[in-house]
Design a protein that fits this description.
The protein is an alpha+beta fold.
Length: 156
């Protein structure tokens, strides 16, 4: 997607955030900061796409099978990731949530970008919490597989 086109979609978000302007830099990217994570938004004209990513937390230790299993289960049909994908960047040693949106999809449904961005931020904050010490403690305390931590748990 062209930078100008993405900037048009960022304008209503800037208004909702109460900032004068929200626009891509000369490299075609902008970073939003939420309470728990930084969200990187990038325009890629060659693939007519928008890439959204968040570095969530340090990668869990190799023996942390419970959280790794939860992350893998969340990726199945992107059920707990708002359509995004969880992964690990071994170079940075961090867990990453990433999403690719096609320009065609965003053009077909005008509010799609804002809707997808908001659900991505919610998922990123959820997983940042789940990967925090508090979230890992809460997850390890769960013994009943049917019981799940609701998204509002970390918002207190």
């Amino acid at each position: 997607m062209k930078a100008e086109e993405l900037n048009e979609r960022l304008a209503p978000i800037a208004l909702a955030m109460g900032v004068e302007t929200l626009a891509l830099d000369e490299e075609g990217a902008v970073t939003l900061v939420s309470d728990m994570v930084e969200i990187l938004i990038e325009a890629d004209e060659d693939s007519d796409s928008v890439f959204i990513s968040a570095l969530l937390a340090s990668a869990p230790p190799m023996g942390a099978t419970d959280i790794l299993e939860q992350m893998l289960r969340a990726n199945v049909l992107t059920q707990q990731t708002a359509g995004a994908t969880l992964g690990m960047d071994r170079d940075l040693n961090v867990v990453v949530l990433s999403l690719r949106l096609s320009g065609a999809e965003l053009r077909a449904h005008e509010p799609a970008f804002q809707e997808r961005l908001m659900t991505f931020i919610e998922a990123a904050e959820y997983w940042a919490f789940m990967l925090s010490e508090e979230g890992l403690d809460a997850a390890s305390a769960q013994t009943d597989e049917a019981h799940r931590i609701h998204l509002s748990t970390y918002r207190g």
